[in-house]
Structure formats: structure tokens, C-alpha cells
Specification:
The chain has one domain. Strand 10 and strand 11 form a beta hairpin. It is an alpha+beta fold. The protein has three helices and eleven strands.
Length: 245
């Protein structure tokens, strides 16, 4: 079972933008699950994409897309309410919902495999993460990979990423929070955006890079991760109090 992390490194994806477009192609090696990586500096450019903020015109807060969860599951819900939301959204049976505890962050997750979460996108695994202190919903994630669907291909992962990126770009997130095609260690942040309360959506295409002609860095996708995060800067996870060690 894939280990679910709240990924404190998401902070780096929210605050740093590396310029430089990239491409993706090729076959899929076996998935290696990993936390969302830190932004990489000095990434060579390649043709065909853009990055950085998508708009400069200020948008009133009441016009900005609100990120309050995913479908019927809302940030702040307890586990029983989230399970009810999963049943409502996906007709999930109780024995199909798995539980996973994170021993280092002291968070708890419930997991569900969902065929065609994205139409014609293959089977994804959803994860709903509950905070260490609050015991309420603080993150929802979805992952597409060979681990969730043996038939998925690199081309399908890249197609899914492009479809979702185009959707999020049309949703009206806070303009100065938006970045696309952001090179990071181990992948590309296809989209990053926040709402007026700094709740965030991050779409991360993970894989391996190769240098091609004209110094073009090409990503071979191995997984696509989508995060809805209530508070990426100060996540509700276990941390040792100062001065104990």
C-alpha cells in the first residue's frame, strides 16, 4: 500500500517558481511513490510550455475560486462524515475503504480506489487525510500510476495532467498564486493555485528526466498526483516541541 504523507515540502511548491518549460514522453517504469519534492534550481528549458503566474490583474476575493475540499468531502469533516461523503460520491462500500496510519506525522488516512475518477483516465486511488490534533479532514489526494492501474501508460498520465491543468486554469484561482509547468526535483508541477484563504490545489506529474537534443529535458511520467490542501504552510501533523532534544 502506498504511504500517504501530508507532504510539508508542499510549502516549497507554493512559494517558489522555477522558470523553464519541459516536455514529457516515453514508457512508464515501475512507480516509486515519493513526497512532493522541493523546487529545483537551474533547470534547463525545453520547447513548448510556460510557467509562472497566469494573470496580473487583481481579482476580488468574492470572485476567486474557493477550495473547500473535494466533491462532498469538505475540510474540517470528521472521519464518519468523510466516509458518508465517499459513499455518496462513489457508492463506496465499507469494505472497499482502507485505513492507513502515518507513524511519523501521526495522521490517519482513508483510501479508496476509483475507476474513471477522471473520464477515460484510468483507476485512481483517493486518500483523505485527517490531522494529528484536529482529527478532521486536512488534505485530499488522488494518484494515477501503475500502482493504481496496471494498464495506465505515460501517454495517459500526460493526457490526464493536461486535462486537469486546463480545467484548473479556467477555475478562477487567486492570480498571483497560479503557476504552471514548474520544474521540481523528480517531476513537474503542472498546476499550482490557491484561493483567498490560501487553501491550495497542486497537480504534480512525477517521473524521470532525460537530456535530449538541444539540451531539452524530457520527463517520462510515472505517476500523477493531485492534492487539495487546507493549510500547506502549517499542516496539522506531529512535530517535536522545541527543546526536547
Amino acid at each position: 500500500m502506498r504511504k500517504i504523507y501530508l507532504v510539508p515540502a508542499l510549502v516549497g511548491l507554493l512559494t517558489s517558481v522555477a522558470t523553464g518549460p519541459l516536455a514529457a514522453q516515453g514508457a512508464v517504469p515501475k512507480q516509486k511513490a515519493a513526497p512532493a519534492p522541493r523546487a529545483a534550481a537551474g533547470t534547463p528549458v525545453a520547447a513548448g510550455a510556460t510557467s509562472a503566474a497566469a494573470a496580473e490583474t487583481p481579482t476580488p476575493d468574492d470572485k476567486i475560486k474557493a477550495i473547500d475540499g473535494f466533491r462532498s468531502a469538505k475540510f474540517g469533516m470528521n472521519e464518519a462524515d468523510v466516509r458518508a461523503a465517499m459513499t455518496k460520491d462513489f457508492n463506496a462500500k465499507s469494505d472497499a475503504i482502507k485505513v492507513q496510519d502515518n507513524a511519523s506525522e501521526l495522521t490517519r488516512s482513508v483510501l479508496l480506489s476509483v475507476p474513471e475518477l477522471l473520464p477515460n483516465g484510468g483507476t485512481a486511488e483517493l486518500s483523505y487525510v485527517f490531522g494529528y490534533k484536529s482529527k478532521s479532514l486536512i488534505q485530499i489526494g488522488a494518484v494515477w500510476s501503475k500502482g493504481t492501474d496496471a494498464a495506465i501508460t505515460a501517454e495517459k498520465l500526460f493526457s490526464n495532467a493536461n486535462i486537469l491543468r486546463a480545467h484548473f486554469l479556467s477555475e478562477g484561482f487567486k492570480p498571483d498564486s497560479i503557476a504552471v509547468n514548474m520544474p521540481v526535483s523528480g517531476g513537474i508541477v503542472m498546476f499550482r493555485g490557491s484561493d483567498a484563504k490560501d487553501r491550495s490545489v497542486i497537480l504534480l506529474l512525477q517521473g524521470t528526466f532525460e537530456n535530449k537534443e538541444n539540451n531539452q529535458r524530457v520527463l517520462t511520467p510515472t505517476s500523477l498526483l493531485l492534492f487539495y490542501v487546507a493549510d500547506a504552510k502549517s499542516p496539522d501533523i506531529f512535530k517535536l516541541p522545541p527543546g526536547q532534544f
